[in-house]
Write a structure and sequence with these properties.
heterodimer; A: 699 residues; mainly alpha; 2 strands; 1% strand; B: 292 residues; alpha+beta; 5-stranded mixed sheet
Chain lengths: 699, 292
Amino acid sequence: MTVSVPLWPAVLGRFGWQDLPFVRAWENPTISEIIGAFAGALVVVGAVVVAALLTRYGKWRYLWTEWLTSLDHKKIGIMYIVVAFVMLSRALVEAVLMRMQQAVAIENPGFLTPDHFGQLFSTHGSIMIFFMAMPFLTGMINYVLPLQIGARDMAFPWANSIALWLTIGAAGLMMASLVVGEFSTGGWSGYPPYTERTFSPGVGVDYWIWAVTLGSIGSTMAGINIACTVYKLRAPGMRFMRMQMFAWTSLCTSILMIFAMPPLTVATLLLALDRYLGFHFFTNDLGGNMMNYANMFWLFGHPEVYILILPAFGVYSEVVSTFSTKDLYGYTSLVIATMAIAVLSFTVWVHHFFTMGQSANVNAAFGIATMTIGVPTGVKIYDWIWTMFRGEVRFTVPMLYALAFMMTFVLGGFTGIILAMPPLDYLVHNTLFLVAHFHNMLIPGLLYGMLAGYHYWFPKAFGFRLDERWGRIAFTCWVVGFYLAFFPLYVLGASGMARRTQAIFEPSFRPWLYVAGVGAFVLLAALTSLGIQLWVSIRDRARTQVEAGDPWDGRGLEWSVSAPPPEYNFAVLPLIDGRNPFYDHKHDEGQPDPYASPLAYEDIVVPRGSATSVVIGLTAAVAAFGLIWEIWGLTIVALQVIVAAVVLRSFGRDQHRTIPAAEVAREHEAWLARVRTTPAIPRQLETAVVNRGLAEIVA
Amino acid sequence: MFVRLKWSLSRLAPLSILMGLGGCTALSHGFFNPQGPVAGHERDLFVTVSIVLLFVAGPVLLLTPLFAWHYRLSNRGDAYRPKWNFSWWVEGLIWIPPAGIVVGLAVLLWHWTQIDDPYRRLPGAAPVEVQAIALDWKWVFVYPDLGVASVDRLTIPAGRPVHIKLTSGTVMQSMLIPQLAGQIYAMGGMTTELNIQAHRPGRFRGENTQYNGVGFQQQKFDVVAVSPADYDRWAAAARRGSRTLDAQTWRRLSARSIITRPVEFAHVTPNLFEHVVAATGGMTHSPQKAVR
């Protein structure tokens, strides 16, 4: 809201001293400004500390060659998830700040200014959706999918890296908005005309536009990549109906990404045209109509929520089946249900604005379509319940998440059906009831799913298990915190408390807001526990080695290779003859031994690392930064650098590396030899020190 | 130590009772305490749907912990069928009843969506016509039949339908009066409609629920329902006032600001509502005649 005087327009564009939160806090030292300055300082200090540590331990070269420029899908997946955790930390702290504000600002201004509060809910939403959830699930798919379908890499490794770096660049813009300038107050959906220059003249909305645009382009690329990987790179014999459930949900997610992301890109770009070039797509004058934006945004936004939930459904399918020691019940109906959800998700977008004044018939049609999605979703939950039936359930951390998910998600589904009823939506739309509902879907659905996957596949990725005790503590905090933080919001919403409210003038809301505030702190404790768990696990990694690669008696192909897997994933591409090839080969009589030496090895070609993808992603963020601050020269130069990087890459000749058969053989045989000396562990001991990643087969 | 703990607990007891009561009073501001036919209808629908949905959620909430615990690894007393993965009976059980429930709910939904359509006129006497114009952080209510207007207070006669036409002189907003009716957006250049009615005299809270800037949290207004006789008295008094809502006042009102207390205008520029619709792009949205 501060109006800053441009310092040097020719070079620095719109920038003035007032755009630095430190200057603002110096001139006006309120708690609100100090928090802003502290957040900005944290970003700067964090970056400096990381750089200093890298220099101190001489890890720059290692980081650059082994990670940042890597085209290996496994490393890209891990980097995505690192981004997700970093952004989760920021957005969760923002959520805690908002909950504290609402708890103290009852008939009281509280400690955050309305403008600051507006920025908080906008960044919280934008980050949690675009830079926490999306990277988390994209990373999970990136890591697991090629391993599950028996592929050596994704279909387009270089594009995969570009998608990652576009996401990182966009997340970097979100971070930059803390240090220089401000962020949008238009919420994560950025509805015009509020986000037009007339009403939001500052740089905030431009930050939002370009961060979301880069993120959506990255997600589109990721979607194309995932779909092509599933279509073209399945191992011999891997028919569609033999894929693991996670591969199915990844495929459906990628289809949704391909079709849902472009409308968002178009919507944000049209808004950018409005803001930068005086177009009138969504303005209040000269023929603009914001309803077009609402339709386009939710044409993306609704499939988006299924993009978020389907990978989690895939994880739950894996986890429930593995930890029930049993085949997945109703594979075919799960596939049908997943596809049905994917298709139906494009037919319900109007339920996000039942209150926009279309006719009752339109609303009713979309309401019924929305409720229809409840059927396949319910079927999935029952499928997981019946998977446990006559199994042997082991209460490991991923399974606990899955159970908590089933019990809690069904309550969110309950309120979802209520919201699907237009007459009821009229009452609770835009209130905390809605906020509680979508958090009830996203936290137990997406977040628990991703955390379950993180626990489940972590030993595969790093070769050692995560600490079970801290995992249970974190799990308890996530569940208890969720109920405390969000169930009061249902009550408040039913009492008519609007969402995005910086101050409350209704004293009877106090107890509920207090409970929700406590819940926010419990959720913060949950995130802290995850951090402690990671630290403890790394510290004690010598005791939890699972190099043999199968700590949970897993079912899919990803468990048939070492942990961590070799760069080429499979020494010899597997031949698929069933739905659970690895599991059946382990357990069934008369099947080939999955740990037998292959007959012959061959040379394997893997992509070399590439610096161009890093350059493209980060330069795109620089170009966006130039657009935000109206430093046109910077943008022009950055765009030229992007074009140059693409040209340079297309002239590159030596983009692959051949790993000779002898080397593959040496590595693989050495691993097999180690597997033979590994003790096989019964399921009762799988969380004990003795579990070295080989499952005991009970005849 | 224990003495002190006991003392603090005894101090806390009344507080906790108060907290509990506070919890219930919160809901009394919403549609669970409806004061008009529309909200009453919608509350009944809410309860009906919730009861139906118990049959969907109930089995999951019961079976999940039951199966997980009963079939736990350490419970060796039970059949273990690791290859059992399909049964037509179960399949029928998980597809057909939920689908049936959704079909039932769909019929219900269609019916109630027609009945509770915000555009649907309420039965009874001729409605009071109100034109609501959303501005930044205030609501302007024009009574075209009376020629008066008020800001941030909507006075209506109890027991008589009220027909509100909405538009926005600024960004999109949304009008919600939880105890009377659901909400509808107010958008620049466009007209939406909302029909409300209060059963009996009282004061109800109305608000904008669509974020629109730093004054958003204060954009609340009182809906004052009064007896028909009192309403007539109010209308007469309102017309006797001295304030005029002319172009100049409108410009002042349109500025982004919060009004601390409601204001009433005895005279209003004719066709103010239509002017606002036209000024915010109305001519391009609908074949309305241009207002000169």
